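Anyone else keep sequences and structure tokens together like this?

Example one:
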Amino acid sequence: MVFLVKTIYSMDKNFYNQASAAKMGWDPTWFGEKYFDDKLVRAIKKWQRFRQLGADGLCGPMTFRRLWTERQAKLAENAVGAPFYSHHIVNNGQLVPIAWDKVVLWTDQGGLAAREGTYYSYAGRSQRKIRYFVNHWDVCLSSQMCATVLDKRGISVHFLIDNDGTIYQTLDMQHAAWHAGSSRSNRASVGVEITNAYYPKYQDTYVEKGFGKRPVVEDAWVHGSKLDPFLGFYPKQMEALKALWTAIHAATGIPYETPLNQHGETSTVYEQNVAYGDFSGFVSHYHLTKRKIDCAGLDLKKLLKEAKDD
């Protein structure tokens, strides 16, 4: 009878930890184990005792918050003396591989970090539910300039893509950056600012800085109006963007979908179901609001197919 009670008690703890992991986004490897079993319970107890927490073998909210905070601190510690470029992005403290050779985390040397107080912090909370990825252009000459502008405006974004295709991650995707204009959109999304000064008058500046001429977009429509010619993105930036999308898909499960028009092509107008409905996929900022035009001319359907097929 005693053995039966102990077995049921053990099963209850394993079940609790499994449910906790599903809700909050951790897994047994965070405690050095592989499975939701008695070994994991013992590992959690050992971890808790070392930190003078109640050693019950359960990864509840308090244990998870402490664990999450320590993992974030470890990222920063590992950055000391590390190579300038990383080979991963970060989601809820977990490293997600990315097939791109120029990625810089906010903890890396030369990194660009979002300023505290410019995003919704989900530190130590359940895994944030992310429905869609928002593409922006920054109307700046570089990602460094964009980061400065964001800081001054008291807003943030998760990723920046520079002229040479370098991807900067400015904060953990677990946090909700202030990039999409409303709390409703910010809390449901991740975003990127692709650097592009937009106006053709800056073409000479790009040439002088050694980046070469940008493509010029002459036939872009948004919200029913045709835009005047503007600067497009460098091919290297588009390759970086597709690599980022692929990593985002792996990290969050966001599907390779985008809003389409009645002809099955990338939508060029505001889509109410993106901001208010249950749409999940990759969008441009103009899909969320009629007040924005970025990223007009970006054929998300075509690029997503290429990203999926790579």
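And example two:
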Amino acid sequence: MQRGKKMRNLILTAALALITICASAQTKGDWYVGTGDISNVAWTEWSVSPTVGYGVMDNLMIGCSVSQADSTADLDLDFHARYFWKGYFAYVATDGLSTDNLKLGAGKMFMIRDWVFVDPKVVYDYTAKTTNLTLGFGLKF
């Protein structure tokens, strides 16, 4: 019984330490360069979807990404915004300037180093009526 309590305290302490290390303020003037969703791609179908974002004010980042499904498809320009709160963020994205393909989500940006991040998020796609877990990574300047 005592061993279980010690293990629980150790796990709680480790989780709090991880949250403290990973939570970093998103401030005005920060630049984010990264990938789009890398979790929904088969290992034989890798594609590049560069994403760039800018902190327009504390806790608010706006950005865009460019993607192309294959060599016959047109380039696709998506816009997105993230609002950060207590280490988590709310996410909204559109396909181009149209709100027909609206996506809403929530996630957390984990800072691996001061300038390297991983950002898993859950995204609901209103057009496809699906909910997906996405994963991106990148650099923060």
